[in-house]
Amino acid sequence: MLKLFLPSEYVKNVYHITPAALKERGVKGIITDLDNTLIEWDRPSATPQLIQWFKEMQDAGIKVTIVSNNNEKRVRFFSDPLQIPFIYKARKPMGKAFRRALKAMELKPEEVVVVGDQLLTDVLGGNRMGLHTILVVPVAQSDGFVTRFNRKIERRIMSNLKRQGLIQWEE
After folding, report:
1. Using omega within 30 degrees of 0 as the cis cutoff, is the peptide bond preceding 93 cis?
2. Amino acid 9: pLDDT
3. How far is residue 84's CA from residue 134's CA, in Å, rounded to a whole number?
């Protein structure tokens, strides 16, 4: 059960995820969280560095879909100017939004990675779908109310994973 919370990979931020490395593994698509994964939860739009990262993915032929538990207004305001498909009110870790994203991208699970900053939503949801999961360090030190609660639970899970020798990185 605990292994469902274990990400396939751990990186400092999305900029450590390169098109070359993804293509080498046969990855053709990314399902990514929005808040505290791509940008701070309270920042309305993409940074120039993030816009460049999206462009590099697009130029490499890697599809990106944002799957967020946030509301439509928040996700649309971020995604529309970038012309990135999105799913809002995803109810992660439930599988429906992940399946919708796979279908919309017309990709198989083995061709897609899930990128997110939370074990309880992104990693658990991706792992339950059999997807390669990449955990990133949250880009902001603060969180919304629900996420603050999740982080407390995540710290306990991380401690258990470390104690069992399942993770080797430092937080």
Report:
1. yes
2. 95
3. 20
Collapsed DSSP state (helix, strand, coil) of residue 7: coil
Count the neighbouring beta carbons within 10 Å of the beta carbon of residue 148.
10
pLDDT beneath 50, residues of the chain:
none
In this prediction the pTM is 0.90
Whole-number Å distance between alpha carbons of 82 and 54: 8
pLDDT at position 44 is: 87
Per-residue pLDDT at 152: 83
DSSP string for residues in 120-163: IIIIHHHHHTT-EEEEE--SSS---HHHHHHHHHHHHHHHHHHH
Of 154, 131, 143, nearest to 32 by C-alpha is 131
159 and 166 in contact (C-beta within 8 Å)?
no
Q: What is the DSSP secondary structure assignment for residue 119, as one 8-state letter?
A: I
User: Do 116 and 8 form a contact (C-beta atoms < 8 A)?
Assistant: no
Confidence at residue 18, expressed as pLDDT on a 0 to 100 scale? 98
State the SS3 of 23-43.
HHCCCCEEEECCECCCECCCC
